[in-house]
Design a protein that fits this description.
The protein is of the alpha+beta class and 67 residues long. It has a single domain, classed as Rubredoxin-like (Alpha-Beta Complex), CATH 3.90.820.10. Strands 2-1-3 form a 3-stranded antiparallel sheet. It starts with 9 loop residues before the first strand and ends with a helix. The model has no long low-confidence stretch (mean pLDDT 92).
Length: 67
Amino acid sequence: MFNDDDQRIYTVVRNDEEQYSVWPTGRSVPRGWAEVGVTGTKAECLDHIRVVWTDLRPRSVREAMEA
């Protein structure tokens, strides 16, 4: 769980497997991750992730299962 009082600004990031996370704005994003253009409080970013990341399987697993 996260701290509801955390008012720092975060950015939503996604990796090549299309998995999402939040990262503190202003810090270098780790290798393999890219910003997706959404920033806000941690709660706002997590709300966005809940909407867009509906299939939690990594992209490679989804593609293998569809083949």
